[in-house]
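Re: [ENG-882] Designed sequences occasionally contain unexpected residues at chain ends

Forwarding the minimal case from QA. Structure tokens:
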């Protein structure tokens, strides 16, 4: 039981997921430590060190999460050389020495870990959150000569438990739960998750530390309702979303991204233009903040916004070209687990432009990466119908109903249509 608890605390310590652009690595900071094809997933772990250290630090955290302890240690050591005022880099070294899954550190290792924590404390974490992480691992490395591993590890676990209680970590799990409910036709349950998330976001501490899980409060506040409305095709509701009061520009981008897509679906050209312009303004403002690094690498949201704007303006070829480019890029670099696939958006466009055969091909390609999505299956079934491929249409409708427990918890029109088509075909 202890090992499982320790693992959970490690994951709390090092794994903060956020629907942000794929991790882009700073070549100047650590080019010699990784291959161009390195895939460590996506990590958002903001800290108060020099901006140039941010991506390198997140790479170290990602390596910790992947149990690449030696590589993580090298990364954090390099940060301390280039950014001596980064207390969290010393925390990272100490965490790299704590291989709690498969060994107990020797006294010499405990001594070194303690020295790194002393350095971290001397430099000083600049936020309450950073000081909390440093203090938590400090209890493990105190008195390195004492051979009482379980006592020290339990103390660390308890300290992390207290730190956990200070942030809304449940929002992370709720994000996946919301996505799962939406794909399985459980709209009431999905709506309940959105409402619960609003209650949790409303309790966010207001101590001025907007990093880590506190930053995730803001992200959840913007992304939960946007995801729900877009997945449910509630275009009017999505078009009416408002950024939270005092929302940072990078969070405003989420809202205006959703509003642009919704307005385009509604055929409201002027609203689409206004929201796309507000998205661009928020994007420009983000470049002047500490969140500017989020715009490094492929900016998929920007491409999606301007593809939908082009469609609303009846510039159809340009719309398809831009969305095709975004989809191809996303296939290469990946997407956040709960995001709407760009290739599914491309298929939606093609279906709207009365090109069902091409739309079907794109839905099917999208579902190879993101299988069993509600709108992917429903879109593929409808496209197959219009392309006069009844066997495929029936197959996709049948799978949609199976995923949604035959529509017992939903009255979405896609499910009603699925039942009607299958009944017509004698299935």
């Amino acid at each position: 039981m202890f090992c499982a608890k320790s693992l959970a605390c490690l994951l709390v310590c090092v794994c903060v997921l956020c629907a942000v652009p794929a991790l882009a690595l700073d070549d100047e900071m650590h080019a010699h430590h990784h291959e161009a094809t390195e895939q460590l997933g996506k990590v958002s772990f903001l800290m108060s060190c020099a901006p140039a250290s941010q991506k390198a630090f997140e790479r170290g955290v990602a390596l910790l999460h992947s149990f690449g302890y030696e590589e993580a240690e090298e990364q954090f050591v390099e940060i301390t050389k280039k950014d001596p005022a980064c207390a969290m880099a010393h925390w990272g070294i100490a965490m790299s020495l704590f291989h709690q899954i498969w060994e107990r550190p020797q006294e010499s290792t405990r001594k070194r870990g303690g020295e790194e924590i002393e350095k971290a404390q001397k430099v000083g974490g600049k936020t309450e959150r950073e000081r909390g992480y440093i203090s938590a691992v400090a209890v493990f490395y105190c008195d390195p000569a004492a051979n009482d591993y379980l006592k020290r590890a339990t103390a660390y676990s308890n300290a992390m438990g207290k730190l956990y209680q200070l942030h809304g970590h449940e929002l992370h799990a709720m994000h996946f739960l919301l996505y799962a409910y939406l794909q399985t036709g459980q709209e009431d349950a999905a709506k309940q998750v959105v409402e619960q998330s609003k209650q949790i976001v409303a309790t966010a501490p207001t101590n001025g530390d907007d990093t880590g899980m506190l930053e995730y409060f803001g992200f959840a506040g913007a992304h939960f309702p946007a995801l729900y409305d877009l997945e449910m095709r509630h275009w009017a509701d999505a078009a009416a979303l408002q950024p939270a009061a005092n929302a940072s520009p990078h969070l405003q981008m989420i809202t205006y991204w959703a509003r642009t897509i919704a307005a385009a679906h509604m055929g409201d050209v002027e609203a689409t233009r206004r929201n796309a312009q507000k998205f661009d303004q928020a994007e420009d403002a983000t470049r002047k903040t500490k969140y500017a690094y989020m715009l490094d690498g492929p900016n998929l949201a920007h491409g999606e916004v301007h593809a939908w704007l082009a469609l609303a303006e009846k510039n159809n070829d340009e719309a398809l070209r831009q969305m095709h480019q975004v989809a191809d890029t996303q296939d290469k670099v990946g997407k956040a687990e709960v995001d709407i696939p760009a290739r599914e958006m491309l298929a939606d466009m093609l279906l709207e432009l009365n090109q069902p055969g091409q739309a079907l091909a794109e839905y099917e390609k999208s579902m190879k990466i993101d299988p069993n999505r509600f709108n992917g299956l429903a879109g593929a079934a409808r496209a197959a119908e219009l392309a006069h491929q009844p066997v495929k249409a029936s197959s996709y409708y049948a799978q949609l109903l199976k995923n949604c427990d035959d529509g017992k918890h939903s009255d979405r029109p896609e499910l009603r249509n699925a039942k009607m088509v299958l009944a017509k075909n004698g299935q």
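QA comment: On inspection the terminal residues look reasonable. Residues 97 and 113 are 7 Å apart (CA to CA). Proposing we downgrade this to a documentation issue.
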